[in-house]
Amino acid sequence: MHPLSDLIDQARADVDGIGSANPRVVPIRPVLPLTAAEGEVARILQICNACRYCEGFCAVFPAMTRRLEFAKADTHYLANLCHNCGACLHACQYAPPHEFAVNVPRALAEVRGSTYADYAWPAAFGALYRQNGLTVALALAGGLALFLVLALALAGTLFHQPLAGDFYAIFPHNLLVALFGAVFGFAIVALGIGARAFWRDVREGDGPYRERAAAGLEAIRNVLVMKYLDGGHGEGCNDADDRFTLWRRRWHQTTFYGFMLCFASTCVATLYHYVLGRPAPYAPTSLPVLLGTLGGIGLVVGPIGLLWMARRRDPAQGDPAQRPMDRAFIALLLLTSATGLALLAWRDTGWMALLLAVHLGVVMALFATLPYGKFAHAVYRSAALLKFSLERRLPSRLKLGDD
Questions:
Q1: Domain range spanning residue 61?
Q2: Rounded (5°) CA angle 152-155-159
Q3: Which strand (E) or helix (H) includes residue 237?
Q4: If you ran DSSP here, which 8-state letter would residue 30 be given?
Q5: In 3D, which of 321, 371, 365 has the Cα closest to residue 120?
Q6: For residue 52, which of 61, 60, 44, 43 has the smallest C-alpha distance?
Q7: Do 19 and 112 reside in the same domain of the chain?
Q8: Is residue 193 located within the same domain as residue 94?
Q9: Which residues of 11-35 are buried (b: 16+ CB within 10 A; e: fewer)?
Q10: Strand, helix or coil at 204?
Q11: 244 DSSP assignment
């Protein structure tokens, strides 16, 4: 028997000996059956729990040490808490080709990918997107754009005299609100149902209100700065090899804040329209256009950087089966920003209607697929970071089984 196995057996024996006399140890309850991927996570993390060489790395390892066994909800929580920086793979003495074959990033990535489908609503959409993410995303964007282009062609408005950037002369304002309100509303409902189911499964005691508030603020800060994309030690993630780099974090931040600037642009334009009575079009120097332009540039630069890093990355650091789904979201972000910037540049020409139809088709496809890919991953990871912040403030205890 290996010395590491002896350590694991001893740890279990110690907990069994403590029994109910220690209020920090909770009774074992029946656990739900694990999938093969979840079982692999449980196996690997039991080895990691005995070794603990990576205890000072990202949030996964402190959270792991609070558990001796790993139920389904635990694997889902830890998988979404992992930022896939790759540092633990290169630091691990039991990584392949060692017979223990410990590969934490890949094992957690496989479970993390399954959570997108497990918690998706409707479930069939999640399964379809997981299997054919890039094809579905591009086909949906192309189909919607083609539908709008054909509608304009039939109406005789596809090519026109310059309209001074007046989008509503092509598509009436109320029609756009109805179309995008329905698609965006569906995305919000689907994401909400998935996030609620995920939180219900992983949630434990929340503690006093003051601690919950502090945990919430800490989680928000960790999300906004992408804390654990620094490898947990400030030097960055591993990419093609064991050298550290902060570029993965920078590309993620560029993409995230580009998206948020575009969202802010839409919110400001809505405020202008409904509160100030100032409908579009807006001047290039206006706040909605400036925010949208900066956001669009971020959503070009960031996704290109992420695609570049994805091509260089060591395949052992993730789940290769998820590449089409991952790249589908990046591709839609890139297409959304590129078509939006093109529309802004040529909005005062006769090409505006064609560019507008293409841009709106891509945006609708992006909204429709938000609940089923990498955007859903952002929601679940935020929930996992909140749980981690809450858990740190709870009394320390060892967690067994599905308690």
A1: 3-118
A2: 55
A3: strand 237-238
A4: -
A5: 371
A6: 61
A7: yes
A8: no
A9: eeeebeeeeeeeeebeeeeebeebe
A10: coil
A11: E
CB-CB contact of 112 with 259 (8 Å): no
DSSP of 58-115: STHHHHHTTBSS--HHHHHHHHHH-----HHHHH-TT-TTSTT---HHHHHHHHHHHH
From the list 326, 323, 329, 306, the residue with the least C-alpha distance to 137 is 329
* CA nearest to 313, candidates 255, 237, 375: 237
Question: Within this chain, do residues 110 and 138 fall inside the same structural domain, yes or no?
Answer: no
Are 20 and 129 within one domain?
no
Q: Is residue 321 part of a domain?
A: yes
Contact predicate 371/189, CB 8 Å: no
**Residues 179 and 195 both lie in one domain:** yes
Sign of CA dihedral 328, 315, 310, 198: positive
Check which CATH number belongs to the domain holding 291 and give it. 1.20.950
Residue 341 resides in a domain: yes
Indicate the helix (H) or strand (E) that contains 217: helix 209-225
Residue 374 lies in a domain: yes
| Residue 386, domain member (yes or no) | no
**Domain count along the chain:** 2
- Local confidence pLDDT in tens for the 403 residues of the chain: 444 455 445 544 443 443 434 444 443 444 578 999 999 999 999 999 999 998 888 899 999 999 988 999 999 999 999 999 888 998 899 999 999 999 999 999 999 999 988 999 999 888 888 888 889 999 999 999 999 999 999 999 998 889 988 999 999 999 999 999 999 999 999 999 999 999 999 986 666 777 888 999 999 999 999 988 887 677 888 888 888 889 999 999 999 999 999 999 999 999 999 999 999 999 999 999 999 999 999 999 999 999 999 888 888 888 888 888 888 899 999 999 999 999 999 999 999 999 999 999 999 999 999 999 888 989 999 999 999 999 988 766 556 555 5
Query: pTM for the complete prediction?
Result: 0.85
Contact 27, 203 (CB under 8 A): no
Quick one: which H or E segment has residue 42?
A: helix 36-51
C-alpha gyration radius of the chain: 24
Largest separation between any pair of C-alpha atoms in the chain: 83
